[in-house]
Amino acid sequence: MDRRIIGVETEFGVHYSHPGSRPLTPEEVARYLFRPVVEWGRSSNVFIPNGSRLYLDVGSHPEYATAECSTLDELIATDKAGEIIMQRLIDSATASMREDGFEGTIYLYKNNADSAGNSYGSHENYLIPRTVEFRRLSEALIPFLVTRQLYAGAGTWVTRPSEDAFGAAAQPHFAFSQRADHVWEGVSSATTRSRPIINTRDEPHADAADYRRLHVIVGDSNMSETTQLVRFGATDLVLRMIEAGWSLGDHQMENPIRSIRQVSHDLSGTAQLNLRSGRHRSALQLQEHYLEQATRFVAAHGPHHDRVAAVLDLWERSLEAVRTQDFTGIDTEIDWAIKHRFLTRYRDRNGLADDAPRLDQLDLSYHDITPGRGLFALLQSRGAAARVLTDDQVQEAIDAPPSTTRACLRGRFITEARAAGQEYSVDWTTLKFNDRPMMSVSTKDPFATTSERLDELLATLPQPSAADDPTRSGPSSIRPV
Amino acid sequence: MPQQQSGSSSQREEDLGPGPAPAPGGGAAASQANTADLDSLLDEIDSVLETNAEEFVKGFVQKGGQ
């Protein structure tokens, strides 16, 4: 597909800390966090004016699902905007909790595991043509997904190596991926019980005759914009090759779940992975192969968007860094390398052992979304983490939906309905006023940015009179947070 | 809806001071350019972390998600 709909769903970890006082459960904190959302939308599961979805998911995880995006810049901006929206929820919850006598601190982590080993996800959705045979696609894709952590991993300090991590060093060490140890199957319909790499739940939110959804739930939550660029950009390129019937060879793994752990716990990238064919390949070899194929594919077909060169460049430099074990070429651009650089220097400067709890705490802090406190945010503010976007682009995405997909129809509908005080219902493919259900607008084409039916529906709203206070109908008064 | 940072985090921002503009392209050159700044953050990060690291980390337990 030349243009592809991509979205990412992020579950955040909730942590309330107030040393010496009664702890609050994540459920209690989540209720405070979502109080303004419920006041705004009468539900803890709402679509917001930027077209994205904000809700409380399994395990009281605040979750943010980006609107449909068709460019990498839109996707990264919309995802990062979600962090700011969550921060606003922290601010209002902190104030409400103070009123109730709770003086502690709320932390929201954009990471993938708590201290007890419970995991939660960063789920990618890629729209793919129904004509591509899913079994062929997943067989070709899994070896790529198992090994892309060389640049897509968020990194983690493993202070207490567990015995069940296949191939893991027995000593405390740094690993590419936090999520890798929490997936248990290649392809399945499970989510929480036995997490797969690819989940088969097929919800295209579009015409199912034309499209299906590819739901990848193996990824780490990324903080770095540049890491996101190469993660989504490289995955999209590999999907393009598969869709085009470009031969990627047979690299099916004998045991993808063992392999993904081997890769994560081996920063050298050279651990030999058993393939079903009886051959062996390292993560580096496999990724070099995919990169070479992608480079040839782009040379043959031309770049399909203006970030392709940047994606290929960072992909190549990441593999070079792992190959040479000199991470300085990517240590402002790839999450695991940014984190590794800071944590190892902190350890060395303070003479800490590799199992020091402070390293666990810094690992968590890297994913703390609060500006001025979270380690990644501090690093970025000091130029130690590169950007793809400007602050203005991210700020804009808090209220503005992506302009290249139907998300802009949803955003417009929500904004205008609320300005008119009209009761409405929204999901990914339907927009309707509750008192006119027969006039509901179906938005089955995710690429459609105009809709005559929506124009007609909105034309039935009373026009705001000039006497109305403009600040009352402006966008800032109608966002939930 | 309160739009301002909570008191504690804005206080911390002041403590640490504003940094230079983010590196546009990253890479080795940028890494070297901000080494001094990273060094200062290595010293200052302790002031934003809660003191009992072990207790703090163990206190973060949540049910699994998807």
UniProtKB/TrEMBL annotation, chain A:
Keyword tags: ATP-binding, Ligase, Magnesium, Metal-binding, Nucleotide-binding, Proteasome, Ubl conjugation pathway
GO annotation (BP), single: modification-dependent protein catabolic process
InterPro entries reported for this sequence: Pup_ligase, Pup_ligase/deamidase
EC number: 6.3.1.19
Residues annotated as binding ATP: R53, T66, W428
Annotated Pfam families: Pup_ligase (PF03136)
Extra remark beyond the main annotation: The reaction mechanism probably proceeds via the activation of Pup by phosphorylation of its C-terminal glutamate, which is then subject to nucleophilic attack by the substrate lysine, resulting in an isopeptide bond and the release of phosphate as a good leaving group.
Protein family membership: Belongs to the Pup ligase/Pup deamidase family. Pup-conjugating enzyme subfamily.
Function description: Catalyzes the covalent attachment of the prokaryotic ubiquitin-like protein modifier Pup to the proteasomal substrate proteins, thereby targeting them for proteasomal degradation. This tagging system is termed pupylation. The ligation reaction involves the side-chain carboxylate of the C-terminal glutamate of Pup and the side-chain amino group of a substrate lysine.
Name under which the protein is recorded: Pup--protein ligase
Species assigned in the record: Micrococcus terreus
Lineage of the organism: Bacteria, Bacillati, Actinomycetota, Actinomycetes, Micrococcales
Gene responsible for this protein: pafA
TrEMBL record, chain B:
Region called Disordered, residue ranges: 1-36
Ranges of compositional bias, category Low complexity: 1-10
Residue(s) carrying Deamidated glutamine: Q66
Positions of the UniProt region annotated as ARC ATPase binding: 23-60
Entry-linked Pfam families: Pup
Key words, A-Z: Isopeptide bond, Ubl conjugation pathway
The keyword rRNA processing belongs to this UniProt entry's keyword annotation: no
Listed InterPro entries: Ubiquitin-like_Pup
Biochemical pathway: Protein degradation; proteasomal Pup-dependent pathway
Residue(s) of cross-link: Isoglutamyl lysine isopeptide (Gln-Lys) (interchain with K-? in acceptor proteins): Q66
Molecular-function annotations in GO: proteasome binding; protein tag activity
PTM: Is modified by deamidation of its C-terminal glutamine to glutamate by the deamidase Dop, a prerequisite to the subsequent pupylation process.
BP terms from Gene Ontology: modification-dependent protein catabolic process; proteasomal protein catabolic process; protein pupylation
HAMAP family the UniProt entry points to: Pup
Entry note about domains: The N-terminal unstructured half of Pup provides a signal required to initiate unfolding and degradation by the proteasome but is not needed for pupylation, while the C-terminal helical half of Pup interacts with ARC to target proteins to the proteasome.
NCBIfam families: pupylate_cterm
Function field: Protein modifier that is covalently attached to lysine residues of substrate proteins, thereby targeting them for proteasomal degradation. The tagging system is termed pupylation.
Subunit structure: Strongly interacts with the proteasome-associated ATPase ARC through a hydrophobic interface; the interacting region of Pup lies in its C-terminal half. There is one Pup binding site per ARC hexamer ring.
Similarity annotation: Belongs to the prokaryotic ubiquitin-like protein family.
Protein name: Prokaryotic ubiquitin-like protein Pup
